[in-house]
Design goal:
Helices cover 72% and strands 0% of the residues. It is mainly α.
């Protein structure tokens, strides 16, 4: 996050330096305003392309492999892992209970334990954290 802030700050500083270098008040008589707009638009388009390339997630290469070390360190049981897989697939508690042949209250218990272990407050946060740790595809 700090690195991204420094990049933005550097880009804005470079842009301010460019505007000062062109000395807008004096050069505007010689060049039309549309040329300045074009220069700024090209700079922001280049910055947008670069940022888009850096921030776009890359596709995984090869089949998904679960991070066993993270499962062990967090203490996630195989049954909780099954619940997490179905949760990540977008299923409700009732559907998870039917698929795993357990009661909905047991699903709620597993989800509560998963939220504690993943330090999440909601289903969405739990799934995001699990994906960042390569626990679910």
């Amino acid at each position: 996050m700090v690195r991204l802030i420094l990049i933005y700050g550097g880009a804005l500083a470079a842009l301010a330096l460019l505007v000062e270098w062109m000395d807008f008040r004096h050069q505007s008589r010689a060049w039309s305003t549309s040329l300045y707009v074009l220069c700024v638009a090209l700079l922001f388009a280049g910055l947008g392309i670069w940022l888009g390339n850096r921030l776009t997630p890359r596709a995984r290469t090869g089949p998904f492999q679960r991070n066993r070390a993270a499962l062990t360190s967090l203490g996630i049981s195989p049954r909780e892992c099954d619940v997490l897989d179905l949760l990540a697939a977008g299923h409700s508690n009732k559907v998870i209970a039917r698929r795993l042949a357990i009661s909905p209250n047991t699903v709620k218990t597993h989800l509560a334990r998963l939220f504690e272990k993943l330090e999440a407050q909601s289903r969405t946060q739990a799934i995001a954290k699990a994906r960042s740790l390569d626990l679910v595809p």
